[in-house]
Amino acid sequence: MQEKISIIIPIFNAEKYLERCIKSVLNQTYKNFEAILVDDGSTDNSCLICDNYALKDKRLKIIHKKNGGVSSARNIGVENSEGKYIVFIDADDFIDTDCLETFINYSQYDFVMCGFKEYIQDDEKKEICHKLYIANNNEQTKNIALQKEYIDFISFPWMKMLKTSIIKNNNIVFNEKIDYAEDTCFILEYLAKCNNAIIIEKPLYNYSIVNGSLSRKYIKDIRQKLKNIIVTLRQNKYTLKALQTHIFRNVKTEIFNERWTKYKNFKKICIELKQIIKENQIKFEILYADKKSIFISICLKFKLYKILYYCLRIKGKSKKLGI
Length: 323
Prior knowledge:
Layout: E1 5-11, H1 15-26, E2 33-40, H2 46-56, E3 60-65, H3 70-79, E4 85-88, E5 94-95, H4 99-104, E6 111-120, E7 123-128, E8 133-135, H5 138-142, E9 160-163, H6 164-169, H7 182-191, E10 197-209, H8 222-235, H9 240-255, H10 263-279, H11 291-301, H12 305-321
Parallel strand pairs: 1-2, 1-4, 2-3, 6-10
Antiparallel strand pairs: 4-9, 5-10, 6-7, 6-9, 8-10
């Protein structure tokens, strides 16, 4: 007997890409699924598109709600799910036709993650494939959060198949009170409850970067960003190394962000990041994972903010010029 998969799609003003997303779901070679489309108070034609497709296929369930954010939409989708497994898809993305069939072939694992293809304004930019990784116990599964090749991708709820029972039995939800890292916290908490996992090499998910995408929005409070992740790591008994790895990953992300056009603002964020590192008792030497990390660590440790700033500015200009 084929087990049912619940596909949860949070939707807000996604009329331009929504049909592509829905069609990719309906075209799956694996047929036993329900697609829960949660319209989070859209003001465009998204709700009409959802309703029209629901009339054509009974596997589509439509939930219309007041705008409450993507976490709220995902949580409502989970609450109304009936499948044994859950797959999240963003409304501006789409999946390959064999995505669900490939996932279900690995249903013996608590956590299944695939690769993805990245699209910028509809043009395919690059393909992200992961090395095969199999975890056979809880510690190995939690160790995924430490792996350099996976750490940037476990944070997203999409391109994964999760077990509904683990989510519901452990009351794992997307925190609706925070506006950054709620998806990272969700996945870290989920991994902490898994007994095994597999990461497959095949890119089955298609990730679109479009104007207004949630992942492109600027969140001001860097301290709150990291606090959310740190609390989740500690509550779920992740190792000190995992804590250090995730903190510095976010430090690097902030340092290399192109929005720091003024040195005054850049220096301010460097001081803030250094304070976070100090508060969590991280030794700079531990952060020497690669050349980029070594450079950032030395500049932060010895307050060489101006050198770091101008090196990044030169790097940014060279990138734009294609040098």
